[in-house]
Design brief:
- The protein has a domain at 2-169 and 219-247: Rossmann fold (3-Layer(aba) Sandwich), CATH 3.40.50.720.
- By secondary structure, it is α/β, with parallel strands linked by helices.
- It is 39% helix and 17% strand.
- It has helices at residues 9-20, 52-62, 76-81, 83-104, 137-156, 187-195, 222-237, 255-266, 290-296, 305-318; strands spanning 2-4, 26-29, 44-46, 66-69, 108-114, 159-165, 167-169, 201-204, 216-221, 243-247, 252-254, 272-275, 284-285.
- Strand 5 (108-114), helix 5 (137-156) and strand 6 form a beta-alpha-beta unit.
């Protein structure tokens, strides 16, 4: 397995799960957002996914027969401000990886997509048949790659699974891996920072048409995501057809729900402040996971918000500086 972006948050958890499942894993990452320590001793090739020759070399030298592609930028607000960067990294990077796969006759591709491809939901829970109408560049870049994949299958025989996952959260219960972005953009670790003496948590919008006025999201444990990737790979190995799946718990939680969970599990108050809505943020996003349940037998094993927050807190409380040497708050 070649795991692009395998030193990042979701990629590293999936790489560990792959190794536990008996796969030989090689990580390909430029370490711009990933961490060398997150490779956990797996072979790590430093390189840019936009470099076709470098990806070809990694495929050839590793003997990989499949690629899991996590190497993408992921901040919705940043994508609105910098669509050029997002298209260059997310679309060009994925296409270069696929070009390298075609040249090296690597035929299985598991793609890290996103619920952001749906845009503002017409109805919920969101099914894979829901219209795709992204309202930000992040979702549009992921959808652009999804649209390219059937052409790569027809021309080069690369079969693919596209996983549209919702809000990844939680951490490795073994305590070896966790979420460590710089700057941190996700609500649960930012709530931990606010509860640990850091800046108050910005609540982006408190006037949405939701029960408590804050955004509703489907938080899914990162280990459940890793399991979905492994099941997808096995489908491709067994000559299963290409497919697109949502990966979520079907349980929406609001920002206020997250704050309450963090306060409950840490015993600390989450300092917070109201902030304007972020451009490109839908009010409600949560999944129907019926298709992946029926096709792959996947069911979220850790769907409770308190379980997700508790595992994440275990990492943050024992790694107050993450993989780095310092943070900008006193925890």
């Amino acid at each position: 397995m070649l795991v692009t972006g395998g030193a990042g948050y979701i990629g590293s958890h999936t790489a560990k799960a792959l190794r536990q499942a008996g796969y030989r894993v090689v990580i390909y990452d430029n370490l711009a957002a990933g961490h060398r320590e997150a490779a956990l001793g797996a072979p790590l090739v430093e390189g840019d996914v936009r470099d076709v020759d470098a990806v070809r070399r990694a495929l050839r030298e590793s003997g990989a027969t499949a690629v899991m592609h996590f190497a993408a930028w992921l901040a919705v607000a940043d994508s609105v401000r910098d669509p050029i960067g997002y298209y260059r990294n997310n679309v060009v990077g994925a296409l270069a990886t696929l070009e390298a796969m075609a040249a090296e006759q690597c035929r299985h591709f598991v793609f890290s997509s996103t619920c952001a491809v749906y845009g503002e939901p017409i109805d919920t829970p969101i099914r894979e048949t829901h219209p795709t109408a992204p309202i930000n560049a992040y979702g549009q870049t992921k959808l652009a790659v999804e649209h390219a994949l059937p052409h790569f299958e027809r021309a080069y025989g690369i079969r693919s699974i596209r996983l549209r996952y919702f809000n990844a959260a939680g951490s490795d219960p073994d305590g070896e891996l966790g979420e460590d972005h710089s700057p941190e953009i996700h609500v649960i670790p930012r709530a931990f920072e606010a509860a640990s003496g850091g800046p108050p948590l910005d609540v982006f919008g408190e006037d949405y048409s939701t029960p408590d006025g804050t955004c509703l999201r489907d938080y899914i444990h990162v280990l459940d995501l890793a399991d979905a990737h492994i099941r997808s790979l096995r489908r491709l190995e067994q000559e299963g057809a290409s497919a697109t799946y949502n990966v979520g718990t079907e349980r929406p939680s609001s920002v206020r729900d997250v704050i309450a969970s963090v306060e409950r599990l840490t015993g600390r108050t989450v300092a917070r402040r109201p902030a304007a809505r972020r451009p490109g943020d839908p009010a409600i996003l949560f999944a129907s996971a019926q298709r992946i349940r029926e096709d792959l037998g996947w069911v979220a094993q850790r769907p409770e918000l308190d379980t997700i927050v508790g595992d994440a807190w275990r990492w943050h409380s024992t790694h107050p500086h993450g993989f780095r040497t310092s943070r900008q708050f006193a925890g």
